[in-house]
Amino acid sequence: MIRSKQIQRPQLVLVVDDQEINRDALGIILEDDYDVIYAQNGKEALNAMHEHIDELVIVLLDLMMPVMDGFEVLETVRNDEDLRKIPIIVLTSDKSAELRALQMGAADFITKPFDAHEVILARVGRIIELSEGRKLISSAETDKLTGLYNRNFFFEYADRLYRYHKDRHMDAIVLNIEQFHSINDLNGRQFGDRVLKTLGEEIKAFMNETVGIASRFEADRFAIYCVGQDDYKSLLKRFQDKLDEQFPEVNVHLRMGVKLWAEDTEPVVMFDRARAACNMTRGDYQNPLMIYSEEMRLKELMNRRLLNDLRLAVEENQLIVYYQPKYDIQCNPPRLISAEALIRWKHPELGMIAPGDFIPLFEKNGLISVVDSFVWKQAAKQISLWREKYGFTLPVSVNLSRVDIFDPALTDKLVELVRDYDLKFDDLKLEVTESSYTDNAKMLLELIHNLRTMGFEVEMDDFGAGYSSLNMLSDMPIDVLKMDMKFVRNIEQSETDLLLVKLIIDIARYMNLEVVAEGVENNKQLSLLQDAGCNVVQGFYFSRPLPPEEFEKLIEKEIELRGRK
Question: For the residues 363-390, what does the mean pLDDT come to?
Answer without folding.
Answer: 93
